[in-house]
Amino acid sequence: MSTARVNALMAQMTTEEKIGQLIQLSADFFQNGQAEITGPMQDKNLTLDIVYSAGSVLGISGAEQVKNIQKDFIEHNRLHIPLLFMADVVHGYQTIYPIPLGLGATFNPELVRQTSEVAARESAAGGVHVTFAPMVDLVRDPRWGRVMESTGEDPYLNSVLAKASVDGYQGDLPLDKEHIAACVKHFAAYGAPEAGREYNTVDLSEWRFREQYLPAYAAAIEAQAMLVMTSFNTLFGVPATVNQHLMRDILRDELNFDGVLISDWDAISEVISHGVAADLAKAADLALTAGVDIDMMSFAYAKYLEKASKIDEKTLNLINEAATRVLELKEKLGLFEDPYRGLDVNAEAKEVYSSTNLAVAQRAAEESIVLLKNEADILPLQKSMKLALVGPVVATNDLLGSWSWQGERREKETLAQVFDKNFENIQVEAGCNYHSSDSISEQQAVAAAEKQDVIVAFIGLPSSDSGEATSKTDINVPKEQLALLEKLVTLNKPIISVVVTGRPLDLRRVSELSDAVVVAWFPGSKGAVAIENILDGTVSPSGKLPMTFPRNIGQVPIYYNSYRTGRPITNTPEDDINKYQSKYLDCDNSPLYSFGFGLSYAKLGIKSVDIINDNVNDEQPLVLEVTVINESDFSAKNTLQCYTHQLTGETVRPVKELKQFKKLTFAANSEQKVQITIAKDLLSNVHTDLNCYVDSGKYEVMVGFDSDNVITKSFKVE
Ligand code: GLC
């Protein structure tokens, strides 16, 4: 329902001005504090008048710059309608916290909420009104470079963290000046491109889309995300950006989303490439009919300006609908009262890298780190140990990852500095680059390692190997880095491999060559400190894999919540004699490391799982009491995970589905009882009529510290 002010404004606006509100321009059009038609933009047939009637801009931040541009813009806009400033603040504005795949590994919604709140405070002070986050695309294919932007392969974990992130960015509504609007993306199912190839076809049954991919978007919208961004891909045979069933029936009607729908960059014009629109005018009509309110940099909606006086009534109504939503967003942001809202040069300087914000980033980095192997408890390291720090990351300190907005590329604290501060004797020799090496560098690394007790190898990929347009067919650790490990292993000294990556990698050989393996993702501004704190035992690792790590690329897509098939393996000797099962000739079905897996320094075990209530109905949830023992001197956080399996259903049911998790601190040498409840509605599933509801019948619940090693109990739903 639009407000009186918006209605009054719309009544004053010309058709051209309404169309202007639907146009989003890039920073190229606003240089030196004012609108400019620079070289690359000259072929867009835009006049300065059009630029000054645009509704929003993306890619600009910084209090001083935004203030100057906004001031100039309002002076030149006939009705003084302020500009919306949007930006890709995906995992931090300038204080950078772990990439979202690392945040997924924290299994800590409250911490994720805090990271988004840090980003909101810095962004709002820096003049940003809307962030293009959270990205909640469910992902199951490490060939796709944007898995780094997702919290992983599970619908429930992604839903919980999507809500947490929206809550962090937006705070309690109405929005205050320290928070910003969240734009959940990319609607929908961009994370399922065939063969993991960027921008490739997505073709899911609507049943699977609703069962696995839709829940996280729905959770973000239920959390009141104020914008949604369309995705580049097709879905159900139609490009998402012009897909009426997806955008009108599902997003607007079923999910009751009445916020602003913005296209991804140039996505409207790409409908021509998809072969669904003959030209830009047709693409514009299709997108407007589907309910896309803002055209990001395709200039399709600018085509309406050429015929503004001759637009038919239906199109005019759609333009009015879209322009009203854009103006309502500006009103919700308080821009009509104060076009500069939270923007403040001093506040920005105070917020960015504040000790509070860095502390949140550090905690998130520490809790994102996953310990995959720890042979003979070689970790944590003793401070008296003499260390050799090797590997390409130790030279680059590239710890921020892709999409790290204004984050400074070279962190203030490098790995060498942090380890030097904490250990008596370290030698630093990279030994190779990410994708290249030379014998001299290798020899220097080997020589350095020869003098030390323990080798810490910082290996993996550069930021540029993940993020948009970085699909890879090979998920091995680069051969130059494996070659270095092969040489180092001849020294017969313990090797700790710290893998810095934006995607799951094939870690078979790394695991064979290393006594311990740690995945640090891209941990952000406090990444070096976080890694050191984990390796020296200041903090026990608590991260859990949010995405399966395959044995090799041939298994992909591989994910834990798979379906049984008609010929499942039985994990009994029968598997060795029965060839007619769902398996490979040359590889085990199991991954190298499973979803939810991550070791701790504490010796934690589940002593018992007692069912308090095993007869679930609308009033009575499933209630469990789990007794956990910690038989070590380490006090440590860890995540108890609860999976359920519906024994029979109208459609096939995953072998297990995460339905609850609790991240708790388990005190040293303790026994702790943990109560866990799973409400009936969490057991709902999508039926052949595409309706989602809970089936009565027999279920199993599996409890563990990962998705494999679980204790199973039965229960039923009335
Ligand atoms: C990019 C990305 C999207 C981003 C937008 C603006 O192409 O797909 O995630 O928010 O353009 O930079």
Protein architecture, described:
With 718 residues, the protein is an alpha/beta fold. Helices cover 30% and strands 19% of the residues. Strand 25 and strand 26 form a beta hairpin. The radius of gyration is 26 Å and the shape is globular. The two termini are 41 Å apart. The relative contact order is 0.11. Alpha-D-glucopyranose binds at residues 58, 88, 132, 185, 264-265, 468.
Radius of gyration: 26 Å
State the end-to-end CA separation.
Answer: 41 Å
Extended strand count: 28
Strand order of the largest sheet: 11-8-7-6-5-4-1-12
Q: What is the mean pLDDT?
A: 96
How many helices does DSSP assign?
A: 21
Helix content: 25-40%
Hetero groups in this structure are: alpha-D-glucopyranose
Poorly predicted parts: none
The largest sheet is: 8 strands, parallel
Q: Which percent band covers the strand fraction?
A: 15-25%
| Global morphology | globular
The computed structural class is alpha/beta
Task: Write the SSE topology.
Elements: H1 4-12, H2 15-21, E1 23-26, E2 30-31, E3 34-35, H3 48-51, E4 56-58, H4 63-76, E5 84-87, H5 100-106, H6 109-125, E6 130-131, H7 155-170, E7 181-187, H8 206-222, E8 227-230, E9 234-235, E10 238-239, H9 244-254, E11 260-262, H10 270-274, H11 280-290, E12 295-296, H12 313-332, H13 345-351, H14 355-368, E13 370-374, E14 386-390, H15 392-396, H16 415-422, E15 425-428, H17 439-450, E16 454-460, H18 479-488, E17 495-500, H19 508-513, E18 516-519, H20 527-535, H21 574-577, E19 604-613, E20 615-616, E21 622-630, E22 636-646, E23 657-666, E24 670-678, E25 685-686, E26 692-693, E27 697-704, E28 710-717
Parallel strand pairs: 1-4, 1-12, 4-5, 5-6, 6-7, 7-8, 8-11, 14-15, 14-16, 16-17, 17-18, 20-28
Antiparallel strand pairs: 2-3, 9-10, 13-18, 19-21, 21-24, 22-23, 22-27, 25-26, 27-28
The chain binds alpha-D-glucopyranose.
